[in-house]
Design a protein that fits this description.
Distance between the termini: 69 Å
Strand content: 5-15%
Strand order of the largest sheet: 3-2-1-8-7-6
Radius of gyration: 26 Å
Mean pLDDT: 92
CATH topology of the largest domain: TIM Barrel
Shape: elongated
Number of helices: 16
Structural class: alpha/beta
Number of domains: 3
């Protein structure tokens, strides 16, 4: 691995300088995804249509090729270049005959869009019972036979977060032994593809570093300082052992780990990352994770912007928007008050007032966007005529807009 990476650095410099590259045999790792692990812009993936708790299993058992292709186009639109996807042993037990073709379709679909694939092994009796290790070896052989020669295969992740939960320690150590075994199996069966382990913590990453080609940790910390400290520890260790480093999971609304904050910190530190996750899975983690709905729309455009490297200004010279700069807040609140006092008020006129108010609230960032004001107006437009609900909405919008009037 060390030799491949150093040779690769020379090739990259030659390409950037416009020099020709001498013909030579280059391992698959060199051509899978970015040539520098710090340039990995990845995502964890589960299709939005699957249901908890079988979401990773049904990704394969209920595999839908059209959905996969549509979702990978969404990933490509954000210039994402790596995907981390779980492949449970249970999916093999339920669908072994069809699984190879599904895995091949997935990897090839991604490769066509310049997205490398990291399959994550999940489940299996060998992690609990060493007498079942032959089952783990057969599972690894099945996967290598299915996609080991695919150019879109980036690396193997032999277990997700074996160090979480942290107790009981006996279980963690048992998981670690399973990781060591499976890492050895994949190195034996597919020596050209790097192996990693999706460790939950930097300490775990350090403990199993000798068994992987690519170091991986996960991070859902709450403050910039905590995020920076974890990154610094991981980078310092990676430099010491001279191995590539990635963060396999970042971004969670419910853990005070906003996408734009953690993405900015990892980009600044030049550490490759994988967000959790691409899709908003309605019956899974979608309440607190995800970029895209199944139709390609987004819940929070700031996440997509951050993935593209655009971040909200938070320095002292910020310039807040003034939504009443041309008098529109004053004008629309006056119209709203007049409409509310009119006993013969017209439904369509009220809807237009509400929509204009909603646009000012959203464009001026004057309202929480958990439920967008424009959505509330649209639901009224699409529903039965309800003057009481419309009056309540205009009253609430007026109350929200009033503080932002420019005082004459």
């Amino acid at each position: 691995m060390k030799k491949n990476l150093s040779r690769l650095a020379v090739i990259v410099l030659m390409i950037s300088a416009g020099c020709s590259v001498p013909e030579q045999k280059i391992s698959k790792f060199d051509f899978t995804g970015p040539r520098d692990a710090s340039l990995i812009r990845g995502f964890n993936y589960t299709p939005a249509y699957v249901k908890s708790p079988r979401h990773h299993v049904d990704c394969w058992v209920s595999y839908d090729s059209a959905t996969i292709e549509f979702d990978m186009d969404l990933a490509k639109s954000l210039n994402l270049n790596q995907v981390r996807v779980f492949v449970p042993y249970q999916a093999y037990l339920e669908d072994s005959a069809a699984l190879p073709a599904k895995l091949q379709h997935f990897v090839r679909t991604c490769h066509e869009r310049n997205i490398g694939v990291m399959p994550v092994l999940q489940g299996g009796p060998w992690s609990r019972d060493t007498s079942q290790r032959h089952v783990g070896r057969n599972w690894a052989k099945f996967l290598v036979n299915a996609i080991g020669k695919e150019p879109g295969l980036a690396m193997w992740d032999v277990m997700n977060e074996p160090d979480w939960p942290t107790t009981p320690r006996e279980r963690v150590l048992r998981n670690f032994e399973s990781c060591k075994f499976m890492a050895g199996v994949f190195h034996e069966l597919d020596p050209n593809t790097p192996v990693t382990i999706g460790m939950a913590f930097v300490d775990g990453m350090i403990e199993l570093a000798d068994y992987v080609d690519v170091l991986q940790f996960h991070d859902y910390m709450q403050t910039r300082e905590q995020i920076r400290n974890n990154i610094a520890r991981a980078k310092e260790f990676a430099a010491k052992v001279n191995k590539p480093l990635i963060n396999g999971e970042i971004g969670c609304i419910a853990r005070a780990n906003p996408y734009d904050i953690t993405l900015q910190e990892h980009m600044n530190a030049k550490v490759g990352w994988y967000i959790w996750e691409l899709m908003i899975v309605r019956e899974g983690w979608g309440k607190v994770h995800g970029v895209f709905y199944e139709d390609g729309s987004v819940r929070d455009p700031s996440i997509a912007a951050a993935i593209m490297g655009f971040f909200r200004k938070r320095s002292p010279d910020i310039l807040p928007a003034v939504a009443d700069y041309e008098g529109w807040i004053t004008r629309i609140t006056d119209q709203g008050n007049k409409w509310l006092k009119n006993t013969e008020a017209k439904w369509e006129e009220g809807l237009d007032i509400a929509e204009t108010s909603a646009h000012l609230l959203e464009a001026g960032e004057l309202a929480p966007m958990r439920i967008p004001p424009t959505w509330e107006v649209e639901m009224l437009r699409q529903g039965e005529k309800d003057m009481k609900a419309l009056r309540e909405l205009i009253t609430r919008f007026n109350t929200m807009l009033e503080p932002y009037k420019i005082k004459k």
